[in-house]
Every structure is written in C-alpha cells, then in structure tokens.
Design brief:
The complex is a heterodimer of chains A (193) and B (798). Chain A is α+β, with helices and mostly antiparallel strands. Chain A has helices at 13-20, 23-29, 116-121, 125-145, 150-153, 156-165, 174-179, 183-192; strands at 2-9, 33-40, 43-52, 55-69, 73-81, 87-99, 102-114. The model of chain A is unreliable at 152-183 (pLDDT under 50). Classes of the chains: A alpha+beta (193), B alpha+beta (798).
Chain lengths: 193, 798
C-alpha cells in the first residue's frame, strides 16, 4: 500500500522545527502514543495503542532513520509488532519546505500489514489512517503555533527524560529532528496501512 | 426390491414430504454441537498462528506464555514430533506427466521450522479458561525469517517464483494431462470454428454456520481417547488419525461427530487442530477443547475452487462439438489437504463431457502450491469448476455460431436412447433425458417470453439477460474399485445396521453422517416404506464410532444413493429372516409367506403377523424355527456399481442496472433429474440451498489474498455471503430418469444447485450486457466496469 501526502502547517518553518524537536509535543500529538524513546542517535522505539475497526492493539515500533539531510529530508523505516493483532512494516520518505509563512510537510509512505490487521481491518485502514493523520496534524499545528498550550497537555518530566536520553538539553540532535516533519504521522500511517 | 411398493403407510413412505424429525431438537435449542459439550476438568486451547505467509521459524519462546496465569501447557511442533505424531496426509495419489506421483510436501500439524501460509499452526496454548489461553497465546514469541510469498494461481509455476517446498520444483504438485492430445489437436486443425474462453473459478471459503471445534478426552483407566469433533465422517477421522497420525490405535480412539452445523465439504478433512487436540489431551491428562472463531475459520478451513483456465471448443459448420481442449491451473494452497489432489483431477476432468456428445476431450491440469490456505473439496468439488467452464464456453460457442444457446445445447446433447453412455472421459452415464429437462426448464422459465420482458426492462432503463446451464454431475461417491484404480486410499461403500428392539421399534445405525441433510427423516421414511414401521418408531443413529459400525461418512451426495441402499439391503435381510420366523409361527411353508405393509402373511389366506410380533418372537424365541439364530438385527454393506449422475437445466434471468452495476436475479428456474425422490420437501430445500450457494459464488463471494499472502477477506464484513435479498423465489421442477445402477432408483441432490447455478447466472449477465465474459464474482463494481468497458468513447450508457 502506498500513500502520498502533503500537509500545510500554519507556522513558520522555525516554529515547526522547534515544535518538531520536542518529544512532548510529538507525544501529545500522536493519537494513542504511549511511549517514545531513543535507542541510538538514529533509532528509537515507540508504543502506540490504536483501534482499526474491530482490532485494538498496542503496537511496538522499532524505527530507524536513514539518508538524513537535515533539515530537508530523511527516510524512516519502521517495523511494528502488534502481538495477536499482527504486524506493520514499511518506510517513508519525508521532507519539509517553507512556503510563505507556512511550512509544507510531504511524505511518501509504503507499507505492508499482516495478521488480524489485514484480515479484519484491511477495508478500514485508509479511512482510519486519514482520520488519525488529520488528528495528528490538527493537534500538531495547534501546538506548533502556540507552544504554551503544551504545558496543559504534556508532562514536562517526560520531555526532559527524552531530551536527556538524546544527549542534549538545548539543541536536540538530528534523530529528534527526524522525528519531526510528520514522522509521527508516518508512524500512524504505517500502523494503519 | 420391495422399495417399488409404495404407500405402505399413507403419507410417510418414499415420496412423502414428511416434516423433519430432527428439527424438533434444533427448534427448541436442544441441538448438541461440539462446543455445547463441556466435561469436568476441561481446559481450553488457542492456537498460535503464523501472521506471515511464508517464513522460517528461527525460534519460539514460550517461557512467558507458560508462566502466564492459568496456563496448563504450551506445546510446539517439537513436542509433537517428539511423541511420534505423524504429519497430515493426502489420501489420493495423482500421477504427474513425468510418471511420478504428485509431489507431496510434508504437512506437519504444528510447524517444524517453517510456516507456509497465514494461519499456519505454530503452537497450542492450553489454559484453564479460554480468556487465559488467548492472553497467553499473545505471549508466545516467534522469531520469523520472512520469505517472499507466492499467491498467484496462474503464475505460481513461473520461472523466478519463490520456491515453497523443496520436494516440489517450481511449486508444481502435479501436471496431469488427460485424453488424446494428438487427436484433439488434429481435430482443432481442421475445425470449421474454434471458440475459446479464458476464465477464473473464484476461490471460495466454504463457511458452514458452525465453526470447526474439537474436544479431546483421555481416559487414564482405559487408555482411550474420545474426540468430539465437527466432522462429516467420524470413522474416516478415526482411521486416518490412527493409521497415519499414530494418535492412538483404532480400538482405543472413539470419534464422535455430534450435531454438526453444516459441512459443505469443509468438515470432511482431517485437520491439524483435531489431531493436536487429540494428542494434547493425553499429553496434559486433561480434557482439551478448541473452538475456532470465525476469522480462524476463514484462515484455516480448507478453501474451495481457485482455478485459472483456458477452454477451447472445435466445431463443425453446423455447431456440432468436435473436440474440447482445457488447460487449467488449480491452486492447492500451501499443503495438500486430505482429498486435495482428487478435486481438480478426477472430480474435474472426468466431468468435462457435460451433457454433450463431444467425442474428443483433452485436458491438462497443473496443480500448484501457493502460500495460501489449503484448498480441497467444497460443495460440488471439481464438478462446479468443470460445469462452469463448459457451460460458459458453450454460450461463447453459441454466440460465435450465431445460434440460440438452448439450440446449440440441444443439438449436442447425448440423446436419451444412448444411455448408458460412455463418455471419452472415463465416466459412463447410466441414465438421463437432457432434452426433457431442457424443454421443461424453458417452459418453466417462459424462455419464449424473454424478448418481450427484455424490451420492457429496457424501457425502464434496465438490461435484462437470460442464461442457461445444462449440467451433469457424478456423485453417490463411489465404486470402491474405481476409487482404488484412481489412486484413492479408501473404499467408498457404505454400511447400515437395522435393529429391531423386542418392543417392535427400530434403530437404524448408518455409516453416513447428517449435518443438515435430514437423514433422520429420510432414512426413517425408507424404513417405513420397506418394513412398514411408523416413522415415529424409527430412530436413526449416526456419527459415533462407538455406536455405529464402520462407515465412510457424508460428502459427494452419497448418503441416500449409497447409504440408503445399504439400509435397504439390511431390510431385505430382515424380511428374509422374518419370513422364516413368521412361517414357523403361522404354521406355513416359508415359500408361502409374503411381506407387505409391515405384515407377514400366508399367501391366499387371512393369516398374518406384524413385523413387530416377528421381532418379539426373535428375541423371545420360545417357539422358534430350529437352527435359526435369535435376534432381529441385520447389517449390510453396499458398494455402488457406478457413480450417480444427476443432471438438469437451470435458467437464470437477471436485470442489470447499468448505472450501479447491481444485478438482480428476477427469476430462477431449475429442472433436475435426481431419480426417485424420497422426501421432496427435503430435496427442494437442498436445491434451494445449492442454488443460493452457486449464486453466492457468481455474484458475491471471493476470497482474496494480497501479494504478500495476507488474507484480506477474513470476516463476513469483507467476504460477502448470499442473503435472502440476493435471491428470488425459485421455480423448481424435476425430470426424473431411472438410474440403472442404483437399487433404490435414487440419485444425489446435495450439490447440484451449487454446480448448476454459477454458469446460469454469469451467462445471464453476459447476455444482459452483450459481452463475451465476466469473471465471478460479478459484484456491482465488476459489472459496472464490464458494462462500461464495452462502450466506445463518447457513447453513453442507456
């Protein structure tokens, strides 16, 4: 399955960049995100709970980033296991570009799903992926434009933990940038396609 | 045979539409299916199944699952192999074109280092409750090495495809040519016209209402395993599980098929889960129950059909069929199910003559392995595939020759005075009158009035089409010698025991199995007809290897045509013995005793004795013929002399909405030859059910795997079964002939509808749209695309 998406975010590239460099923002924006944790400068683990039609499961993703060209583009490769619900594997090419006062985030994703997810959710995946991606971008755009909102929705301790694990407290490293630019949406997509 | 007498008890013998005796328990909720049975100390099993279509298993970690609450055991293929439990078998050998037997891949009941389809069995988790078993199954960690998958029936043997089994190069199970290729090619070379058609017989999931289930119990005292299982053939299960899987010796294994909620072929086979449950109950020394959920049924029941074919007919200038050539790829799935090899070979190619005189037939069947669920018999098994191919091709022939579809059929029919008719493809049809069935069907369908109806539909913006299907099938399976010659591992006779109790009522033990067919009624009617015993005094007992003598079960529309005759033969023995007993009691010569309507009488006198009184004398033999054994209880086995050949013509009329592609079946007429009907109501029910099954295949059902081997249709949300609003009220009639090989004069009726209907429906749609062909299922989308592909650019659909 394949998906090509461009999303316009009503914030400057700098604002988007800052927001996308913030684990707490991403965690708050990704629907059903339970955990987000770096395992190396170019890889991380994520746990996301989601429901596709009759299939509800917690997916554990191992994510690797390649071809990183900060702050323009990278390729994200993800392998997700949902236990009895099945699996989701795939990759996506993600890029960011400025357009006037806005930022355009584009990604091209390819994915395979298996097990119950394919058996029961196949028909519902595209619709659910779009719904979740919309949820993500809706929330993310809001947070990117107005970072103070985040304090109400996220636990700052988690953000500090993630930042500390990434080895930086001010300038976040490349891997975390790579999380940005719709990486979260790609995860949602991979989860669902 | 005395069956020719009729009306021995008014209204309940042969030919009476008696209400079904078994329905009382079903209607009041007292049916007892495998999952209804619960025993003390019972545990629950869940199978860990592969989410991948093709993968090596690098490791299986079961520690966490074993430590989970309530878990009794987690067992894998290593445990199974360690106990010497053999792999699943395929019971029929087909010889490939290289002279070698078909390539049989090992089919372990729990994976041995590799999985070959999504749903393949990897481990069994046994726990105190079902929920605990399910939870713990999620904790089994399997490390898979994912391999590319093969899913295409047409391309499985192509160069460069991933190899599934080492024993089967190019994923070929067998390549089976049949017929005189050279003669067929010579005829094609000089034919006036050759019509050809490429077509797909869509893969189906059989979907009996009750999912498969098994309950294994091990008695440590008697060292006997009792396996309750959803089966159409308990003795075949016991035989295979004992002789080939080494589950237990036959005398230490009891297999019970209690009430079974539909089979349609899918419950013939000996599946992994049943074997594993039978083995596990002894291993853990606790009863183990497993019941499939619906998605498991979609994943792991044997599927049906799945052919990709090219069919060609050579004709002379008058539209006479000269030669038929068929090339078929048949998908057998990842492993060979119990009878998988027989379905696209003997049950398919041997039916390619259909109702026609076609003198030369050549077919070549490539049976292929793919990374999909195993494929085996499903209602009709091979005959629907043959009939669909032939009856679609005949319509193409009619169009190519500018002939009416009814007339090209009539022209090529085997005439009624040619029976018994030896076809060029092994089968010798014993009786038939195809023209009579066609004529009756055309009248029933008001074929002549169709053009006016089509005009009227057009005025309403709809397209009407009419389609015929003149099928013949071979059922009543089957003469044992023929089965043996073809490479089958069993004899397909049937058995019966008819036992009078001292109080005069009767227990009939049959080796067939009823899972919806109404045997408890039909067989009671036979007893009523043959012995004059009221049907309420007859109990039909089946499905338990500890109760009934050996039997081969129910499939291939064989229960009445084979099992019914065994019952009749046991009745003949009872009558013969009864005459001796009655002669003694009535003080007459045995030769003067006549039997009719339940009474033994002395010819030409009013001296008579009811059969119940004879039975009493046999059990209380105070005054009894010298040297005669007491008791009134006879066994009989019947091995049929030939298959049974039901045939008929079905006519389907459809109305198509070109804007939506929606097909409405507005009229469906069926005229069938089933020989003599024992219970016309039950037969009509079978005809209705079969037609609905066939309409489901034609319009709605299609099992789909993606290119990775993921099953995309694994629930009733994505796999459309026919519903009441998809079918019209059927017009059913009969054109019976007398099958010379069947002592009761009966033919089978269980599969005919599913065989006859698909081509009738598709022929009607092709006729409505004015197109050559549309593949099944003719969903609204497919019909819309086919209708609109026909238009020239700029042309508007009417």
């Amino acid at each position: 399955m394949e998906m090509n998406v461009e999303h316009r975010i009503a914030a400057s590239r700098e604002q988007v960049w800052a927001a996308l460099n913030d684990v707490a923002t991403l965690r708050a924006a990704i629907p059903g995100c339970d955990e987000l944790e770096a395992t190396s400068p170019t890889s991380f683990k994520a746990a996301i709970t989601t429901k596709v039609g009759p299939v509800k499961a917690k997916f554990k993703f191992d994510v690797t980033l390649t071809d990183i060209d900060a702050p323009n583009s990278y390729i994200i490769v993800a392998e997700g296991q949902g236990g009895a619900a099945g699996f989701a594997n795939g990759s996506a090419a993600v890029s960011l570009r400025a357009d006037g006062n806005d930022t355009i985030l584009a990604y091209h994703a390819k994915a395979n799903v298996g097990g119950k997810l394919a058996q029961l959710g196949g028909r519902l995946i595209d619709g659910t992926a779009k719904k979740l991606a919309d949820e993500f971008f809706g929330k993310f755009s809001e947070l990117a434009a107005n970072p103070t909102l985040l304090e109400r929705v996220a636990d700052p301790a988690d953000a500090q933990t993630a930042a500390a694990k990434a080895g930086s407290d001010a300038k976040l490293p490349t891997w975390l940038w790579a999380l940005s630019g719709g990486c979260a949406a790609v995860l949602v997509y991979l989860l669902l396609t | 045979m005395s069956a020719t007498q009729s009306g021995s008890a008014a209204g309940t013998g042969i030919g009476a539409s008696v209400l079904r005796k078994e329905d009382r328990r079903f209607l009041i909720g007292k049916g007892r299916y495998t999952d209804d049975i619960n025993v003390a100390g019972q545990t629950h099993a869940v199978f860990v199944r592969s989410p991948h279509a093709h993968a090596t298993i690098n490791s299986i970690k079961t520690d966490a699952a074993r430590a989970a609450p309530g878990v009794v055991a987690v067992l894998t293929g290593t445990d199974l192999a360690g106990d010497g439990i053999g792999p699943l078998i395929c019971g029929v050998t087909v010889t490939s074109d290289d002279g070698q037997p078909h390539r049989a891949a090992v089919h372990p009941a729990l994976a041995q280092g590799k999985v070959n389809y999504v749903g393949d069995h990897v481990a069994i988790v046994i726990a105190e409750t079902y929920a605990q078993a399910r939870d713990s199954a999620e904790l089994v960690e399997v490390d898979y090495g994912i391999l590319p998958a093969v899913t295409s029936t047409a391309h499985a043997t192509d160069a460069g495809q991933q190899q599934i089994h080492d024993v089967a190069p190019n994923n070929m199970c067998f390549n089976w040519p049949f017929g005189d290729k050279a003669a067929v090619e010579a005829t094609f070379a000089k034919a006036h016209k050759v019509s050809s058609l490429d077509l797909v017989n869509n893969r189906m999931v059989t979907n009996p209402m009750e999912p498969r289930a098994a309950l294994g119990e091990y008695n440590t005292g008697t060292e006997e395993i009792t396996l309750h299982v959803t089966t159409q053939n308990p003795h075949v299960h016991r035989l295979v599980l004992s002789a080939f899987n080494q589950l237990a010796p036959e005398h230490k294994l009891r297999v019970v098929g209690p009430d079974v909620g539909g089979g349609f072929g899918a419950k013939i086979f000996i599946y992994a889960e049943e074997l594993v449950v039978g083995w596990a109950c002894r291993k853990v020394q606790r009863p183990v129950k497993w019941t499939a959920d619906r998605t498991e049924a979609f994943l792991s029941d044997a599927h049906g059909r799945d052919h990709v074919s090219k069919a060609e007919m050579a004709m002379d200038k008058d539209g006479n069929f000269l030669a038929l050539r068929v090339m078929t790829n048949a998908n057998l799935g990842a492993y060979l199910s119990t009878f998988a090899t027989m379905v696209p070979s003997y049950l398919y190619a041997f039916l390619l003559a259909g109702q026609y005189r076609t003198p030369l037939i050549y077919s070549e069947v490539k049976a292929v392995y793919t990374n999909t669920s195993p494929v085996d018999a499903s209602r009709g098994a091979g005959r629907p595939e043959a009939t669909y191919l032939l009856e679609r091709l005949v319509d193409v022939c009619a169009a190519d020759m500018n002939m009416d579809p009814a007339e090209i059929r009539r022209k090529n029919f085997i005439p009624k005075d040619a029976f018994p008719y030896q076809t060029p493809v092994v089968q010798c049809y014993d009786s038939g009158d195809y023209e009579e069935a066609l004529d009756k069907a055309l009248i029933l369908a008001d074929y002549k009035g169709f053009p006016a109806r089509a005009q009227a539909a057009k005025a309403r913006g709809k397209r009407r089409g009419i389609g015929l299907s003149s099928y013949v099938e071979a059922c009543g399976i089957a003469p044992s010698a023929a089965v043996g010659q073809l490479g089958g591992g069993v004899g397909l006779w049937e058995s019966a025991q008819v036992r009078f109790n001292p109080t005069g009522n009767v227990q009939v033990f049959t080796g067939t199995h009823s899972h919806g067919q109404g045997h408890e009624t039909t067989f009671a009617q036979l007893i009523n007809e043959l012995l004059g015993v009221p049907i309420e005094n007859v109990e039909v007992i089946h499905g338990d290897t500890a109760k009934t003598q050996f039997g081969m079960g129910t499939y291939g529309s064989r229960s009445l045509a084979v099992g019914g005759v065994a019952i009749a033969k046991a009745c003949e023995k009872l009558i013969a013995k009864g005459k001796k007993i009655a002669a003694h009691a009535l003080e007459a010569a045995e030769g003067d005793i006549e039997f009719a309507n339940g009474n033994f009488s002395v010819a030409g006198t009013d001296k008579a004795m009811n059969i119940a009184a004879v039975a009493f004398n046999a059990y209380v033999p105070h005054s009894y013929p010298a040297g005669l054994e007491p008791g009134f209880d006879e066994n009989a086995f019947f091995d049929p002399l030939n298959f049974s050949f039901p045939a008929g013509t079905h006519v389907c009329e459809v109305e198509v909405d070109l804007d939506t592609g929606e097909v409405e079946i507005v009229k469906y007429s069926a005229v069938d030859d089933f020989g003599r009907l024992v219970n016309p109501m039950i037969v009509e029910g079978q005809v209705h059910g079969g037609i609905v099954h066939g309409i489901g295949q034609a319009l709605l059902e299609g099992c789909r795997y993606d290119s990775e081997g993921q099953l995309l249709t694994a629930s009733f949300m994505d796999y459309a079964m026919p519903r009441a609003d998809n079918v019209p009220s059927f017009d059913v009639d009969y054109a019976p002939t007398v099958p010379i090989h069947n002592p009761l004069g009966v033919k089978g009726c269980g599969e005919a509808g599913a065989i006859g209907a698909p081509p009738a429906v598709i022929n009607a749609i092709a006729n409505a749209l004015g197109i050559k062909h549309i593949d099944m299922p003719a969903t609204p989308e497919n019909v819309w695309r086919a209708a609109h592909a026909q238009q020239r650019p700029g042309q508007k659909a009417a």
